[in-house]
């Protein structure tokens, strides 16, 4: 047994506002979400982060996220939503158990989209080449 907070929620050792679960995946409300209905979708097995989650498990997590997002639109009247994953401390990951955020959005809710940065001359091609070389 590990001390991971989300594993404890999955094992029902710590209470959470669980909104959905199946054999592999659980969804519960973020205790301090950006909007009502902000939900965390987690694999029931422990994986540290998105990058270390086996690809074959991501499909179920994404399917549950879609189900939750559509429920938030129907049940809470959210006209839109964001899906997000913070992978690593620099990206804002706080709990070291893979989780995907489903964030219902409302007109004028005060949250900003991320701000884009333009590439320097030639930088985009260099970055694309590095990624392509690593992916192939
Ligand atoms: Zn865990």
Oligomer: single chain
Mean pLDDT score: 96
Radius of gyration: 17 Å
List the ions, cofactors and other small molecules found in this model: zinc ion
Which strand order spans the largest sheet, edge to edge or round the barrel? 1-2-3-5-4
* CATH architecture title: 2-Layer Sandwich
Key features of this structure:
136 residues; alpha+beta; HIT family, subunit A; 3 helices; 30% helix
Description:
The protein contains three helices and five strands, in the order αβββαββα. The protein is an alpha+beta fold and 136 residues long. The chain has one domain (5-135): HIT-like (HIT family, subunit A, 2-Layer Sandwich), CATH 3.30.428. The longest helix is centred in the middle third of the chain and has 22 residues, at 55-76. It binds zinc ion. Zinc ion binds at residues 4, 6-7, 46, 97.
Give a summary of the structure in a few sentences:
The chain is α+β, with helices and mostly antiparallel strands and 136 residues long. The protein has three helices and five strands. It is globular, with a radius of gyration of 17 Å.
